What we know:
By secondary structure, this protein is of the alpha+beta class. The chain is about 20% helix and about 30% strand. It folds into two domains: about 1-100, Histidine-containing Protein, Chain: A; about 130-295, Lipocalin, CATH 2.40.128.
Amino acid sequence: MRKKIGCVSECFASLLLAALVVFAAGCSKGANDDTIAKDVQSKVAADPVTRDSAVFVTAKDGKVTLRGTVKDIPTQQRLEQIAHDEPGARSVNDETAVLQIAASGPEATANTPPPNATPPAAAPKPEPIVVSAGTDLIVTVDQALSSKTSQPGQSFLATVAQPVTVQGKTAIPKGSSVIGTVITAKRKGKLKGEGELAIALKSVTIRGQNYPIRTATLDSTVKGKGKRTAVTTGGGAAGGALIGGLAGGGKGAGIGALVGAAGGLIGGAFTGNKQIEIPAETALTFTLAESLTLPPRPE
């Protein structure tokens, strides 16, 4: 009888030990991914070849993902090497785009015809795609932004949530990477002082090519006894902006509203001393302040 009880105790202890090992492994897994991403981001910022690149690093299950823009292919290769060399990194997914610079020198003149050569009859060139000013660009932010923790001039990464079409053709596909910037970030005081957060978009990567853009600014302010207003500024284009999940309301909170013209007020009011918060994966609608010209797509 004592032998049977001892066996049961040993089995229970073994099962408990196995459960603790699995739990510890699960906890360390997330910690390891965070450590890998932070280490690679730090090394990218310190490396003389890559430090000027607008690159964001994430890691999941040991897979390192690089997103953003680089100035040339050698810089892109150096980024990949830094990520590959990181202890614990199992694989690297490079989604960075290379900023194209107009060719010059021998390569640029290699295909130039002689001065007296008669050029062949050229086929009609397809028209470029123009995304006009006033077009809405709906994105989801890839990281949390806050009037308390964000800094003016800080870049953030976002993803196009809905495709933009022009004359039935997709101009900006869903899933395209977007880089934005924090214009203003001001923490709200406990007793007085306004809290403010203003953001805008500055570039979009479409099929591996990066294009600068200018959008109206999304500007949200907390003042007085918790009253919050949000406005669209800087663009002068009709359209307005949609802000969801601001001011601690969570994803999809119903305090955002679509307005009919730039400069219109958005939102309502709440009580308390909450800061302006934009959680990760929040959908925001920016309005193009200037038209965006894209090369024609092949038929």
